[in-house]
Amino acid sequence: MICLMAFGSFLIMMSLVSHNAEAVSEWSIETVDSDGSIGLYSSIAIDSNNHPRISYFDDTNDDLKFAYWNGLSWQIETVDSDGSVGWFSSIAIDSSDNVHISHGKFNELKADWNLKYTTNASGKWAMETVDSGGSIGWFPSIAIDSSDNVHISYSDGDNEDLKYTTDASGEWVAETVDSDGSVGWFPSIAIDSNNHPHISYFDDTNDSLKYVKAGPETDDDTGWTCFIATAAFGSSMEPHVKILRDFRDRFLLHNSVGKGFMRLYYTYSPPMADFITEHDSLRAVVSVSLLPVVGVSWVVLKIGPASTMALMLLLISGFIGFVRFRRKYKI
């Protein structure tokens, strides 16, 4: 009996080993494109027909290329050849099987990087620069939400920050998500069932893996969500909120005082924002109260803090002079 049990166990083990070997042997390997130095920085997505679609870099010609399986054979296209493009490509497929690709462009004359976005959603390939000015757009990662809006995370090489952009409002809106040290390297983005983005990335300062998420439940200290302004104006993509977010990203997050203020703000503002959201009349009052702050922020963004300070001093001096003049001459 013992011998029979041992022999039976042996047969079961051999069956499992054989099954695993058969599963591994089902891998099918083929060369898709070999025309030159080809295939760097590839990214893959699967369409509704379970056909693979691949974006990749043509190192021979410095182009962005795209390959897809049509059910019979591989089809290969050069998608973008405007300069040195296609670096670190990332691909995603929307609900209509349209292709969306984020990638970097290297400008040799200016020695800088730009973040580019390429799609065939209109029926033909269209390219645009999403973010530029310096070393912008390293290691982009792209994802599509349930409304087919595009979300991209990427690295700001100049400031060593994590950045994020989306076209959910109808136009590209970019923001700095994390600027605490040398962060934002090699990000990867995913969208949850509530269409909120989640990003993982490398913190080079602390040799650590970091994670950030966006949405009403955000409680990190990176300040991704402008809680009170979003509650007052109704959307994080509302133009007034964007001005405040741009002011934060350009000025507050790049000094210790500003970062300290933002940490306090994101510690105490979520419950205040929840209360504002629940009361429409309070939302109206807060939105009106924020308009002067939005106005000053807009001026600072346009002419800089020093010029804004000088302008404010000039206006205050003019107002004081006008009051004194009226009192003196009893006008």
Q: Which overall shape is indicated by the principal axes computed on the Cα atoms?
A: elongated
The portion of residues forming beta strands comes to: 25-35%
If you compute it from the alpha carbons, what radius of gyration comes out, rounded to the nearest whole angstrom? 27 Å
Separation of the first and last Cα atoms: 118 Å
Oligomer designation:
single chain
CATH class designation of the largest domain:
Mainly Beta
Structure summary, number of beta strands: 15
Order of helices and strands: HEEEEEEEEEEEEEEEHHHHH
Query: Segments where pLDDT lies below 50 for 5+ residues?
Result: 1-21, 216-223
- Percentage of residues in helical conformation: 25-40%
- Separate helix tally: 6
Strand order of the largest sheet: 1-2-3-4
Characterize the largest beta sheet: strand count, sense, and whether it forms a barrel: 4 strands, antiparallel
How does CATH name the architecture of the largest domain? 6 Propeller
